[in-house]
Design brief:
Blueprint (H helix, E strand, L loop, with lengths): L1 E4 L12 E4 L5 E6 L5 E7 L2 E4 L2 E2 L5 E2 L2 E6 L4 E5 L2
Parallel strand pairs: 1-3
Antiparallel strand pairs: 1-2, 3-4, 4-5, 5-8, 6-7, 8-9
């Protein structure tokens, strides 16, 4: 399983993710955020779908679909 980390408590265009564990390939993903929160998701090509989660501060973040540059691991755009 692919484990990614984010530099903040949420993703945004321009955010640079880091591969913590696993190989960059289509399939299940665990996203670890800087505040200690986490969520599951799925990588399909250059689209990263994440499930809804709650930040440590209690902010509800809805499920999102992101375009990610798999060469740099930078979030390019929010698709949904």
């Amino acid at each position: 399983m692919l484990e990614l980390s984010a530099p903040s408590s949420h993703l945004y265009p321009g955010a640079l993710c880091r591969v913590e564990e696993g190989a960059l390939a289509d399939g299940p993903v665990v996203m670890l955020f800087a505040d200690g929160s986490r969520t599951g998701g799925r990588l399909a090509g250059s689209q990263l779908q994440l499930m809804a989660y709650e930040t440590r501060a209690g902010t509800a973040i809805p499920a999102r679909l992101w375009q990610i540059d798999t060469q740099t691991m930078r979030i390019a755009a929010r698709l949904r």
